[in-house]
Write a structure and sequence with these properties.
With 151 residues, the chain is of the alpha+beta class. It has one domain: Aminopeptidase, CATH 3.40.630. Helix content is 36%, strand content 25%. It has four helices and five strands. It has helices at 11-25, 35-51, 104-118, 133-139, and strands at 2-5, 54-61, 64-75, 86-95, 124-126. It has a five-stranded mixed β-sheet, with helices on both faces. The longest helix is centred in the first third of the chain and has 17 residues, at 35-51. It is globular and about 45 Å long. The termini are far apart. This is L-amino acid N-acyltransferase YncA.
Length: 151
Amino acid sequence: MNFRKATIEDLDILVTTRIEVLRAANRLDASIDMSEVERQSRDYYSKAMADGSHTAYLVFDEDKFIGAGGVSYYRVMPTYHNTSGEKAYIMNMYTASDYRRQGIAYKTLDLLVQDAKSRGIKANSLEATEMGRPLYEKYGFVKMNDEMELR
C-alpha cells in the first residue's frame, strides 16, 4: 500500500471520495442530488489545500485508489486546556470495502494525527459513524460528554 499526502492535483479524487463518504454515512442512495455538496466540496478543497488549513492522505494499491482521510485545521478562542485555540478535525475517512480490516484506516488516521502534532496541535476531534467508532477508540479517541449542538 502506498500512502501519500494529497495535492491540489488530486482534487477530483478528493471530491468524489467526499460524496461517497457522505452517501454512506447518511445512507443516501444514488437518487439524492449531491451536486451542490460536490460544488461546495470542490471549492472547500481548492481553498483549504492552498492555504494549508486542510491536509488529506490518499491510499493506493499500486495504481488503484483504495482509501483516504483528511484533517481540517481551525482556531477557536484559547482555553486553559488549549492555550493556542488551534484544533484539528479529522474527517472523510474512507477505505474501499475490499480493503477494510487491514489496518489501512488506522495508518491513515495516524498520519493525520501526526500531521496535526507536527503543527503543535494536540486538540483532535472527529465525528464517528457506528462502523468507524471501534477504530477511533482503538487509537485512543474517547466519546465527548460536554459538547452540544443546536439543530
